[in-house]
Design goal:
By secondary structure, the chain is of the alpha+beta class. Helix content is 30%, strand content 31%. The protein contains 7 helices and 13 strands. It has helices at residues 3-19, 23-41, 46-49, 76-91, 154-160, 225-239, 282-298, and strands at 60-61, 67-68, 101-114, 120-133, 138-142, 146-148, 167-179, 186-188, 194-203, 206-216, 243-256, 262-265, 272-276. The longest helix has 19 residues, at 23-41. The two termini are 23 Å apart. The model is unreliable at 19-23 (pLDDT under 50).
Length: 319
Amino acid sequence: MSDRSMYSFATHYMLQKTIYKAPKQHQCNRSILQYNMECLDDPCDALVQSINYGRFAQGTQLVDGKVVKGDSSGDVGLFCRGLLSRLQCEYDDRFVVRSEESVDSLVLTKDHHASNDNEQQHQDSVSAVVTVDQNGIKTTIHADQFAIAMGNESRPLCNTIQVPCPIYPVKGHLVTISSSVDCIYNITLPNGIGYAAPMDHKVNGRRLYRLSGFVDFTPNKEPDQHRIDALVNAAKVHLDDDVEVIDASACHRPFSADDRPIIGPAAKFGNVYLCTGFGSRGWSVGLGSGSLLASLILGLPCDIDPEPYLPRRFGARYF
């Protein structure tokens, strides 16, 4: 990404967050979050309820001390592995996981159909995806519908078929700490710099917490010690000084300019859908976003209003 693109995105993002405030947009994020948590809590959902993923927190404690229910923390990797295993058992050979391959390219074709005046019209569509394994062997997989849900890699892939995908990699930090303080809530850190999420397990009788925070517009992926120290010091306000750092890392998260996921049909193609731009909330809105995406692809009603998440909200070129 060019420096100009990064600065343009950073300006747009900060305007949305500071000057415009966009309370309606934040309400949209809360609505999909609430739907997601209802999915996790639904006792009738045998598939999700059968997954042990270390869910622990009983809500989020805000800066003013109030606790908001309907939030949780969990082991994302454990959940994803459990979900894949359950889907494979449920759908057998109809659900195929190609974990040792990466996406190489998309194959385009032209669809021919007659218009009202009987003239032939042409519309591009994607007919296949080409994957490549660790040995460089490529495989072409044909399908009717395609969903691009690759986080930060969504935009480069979309660029190959000239589909606008307005997401950008924004750097965030993750720190795992232990503390003798045993809290059952997610904690909003002072000055809103991030969150402390209690984890399900303990080490030597001490609760583990995952700290996450900061939004840095930089291509640099290396952890910043000043950011790490700031998160740890902020956590000490709630967890006392008895805090031990277990590990720390930094990563690029896929953000959209208005801080909302991008879910819906891509421009130019009738069979390509985007599902990306979750920022730091992939765990929090994953199930809800998947339900919305499936509803759009299948043409079924959904409890989530799709309009706030459609790519076309960014302008005519995204239709």
